[in-house]
Specification:
mainly alpha; 2 helices; 97% helix; 0% strand
Amino acid sequence: MAEQQKTQQAKEEVKNQAEKAKRALGKRDVATGTIIGGVVGAATSLLFAPKAGKDLRNDISTQTNTAVGKCKDFSNSTREKCTDWKNTATEKSQQLKEKFKKNKDNEQSQEEQSTEEQTAEGQNEAAATTEVDTSQEKQTESKEQNKQQDQNTNEDKNKQKNKQNTSKTKSNSNKKEEGETTLKTDDDTAK
């Protein structure tokens, strides 16, 4: 926004200078008309005045020299003013160029800074994502280890149950054999 305001101010300055130049040209036209009118009036008055030929020629020569001198003075002053305006316009345009260049450089540096900040934010996010991924991997490994331990524990329990069942089965079969032996002995005794 500040850049737009500066641009607007620069445009207004250029417009103001153009208006001043137009007003000066208008004054110049009036001055030029006055000089030409004075010369024509002087020549007319000399030509219609009753004077001798030599006197008339001297008067015309004198007034012509005066008019030429005034025209030269006027052209010199006009030339100086035009040179001043040209120099002023050149300086203002250089200043505007420099302002635009500075603004452009500032914009570029701001864009670079924002790009760097975005890059830094992206790197921070990537690092955070990596940390999250790493912690998730550790959690996953921990869960897998816990599952493995649970499986090992369950296998150990199953083995112990199988041993107990095997022991019970053996003791049951021993009891059956004893019972059968007792039955046989009882049967033998009963006979």
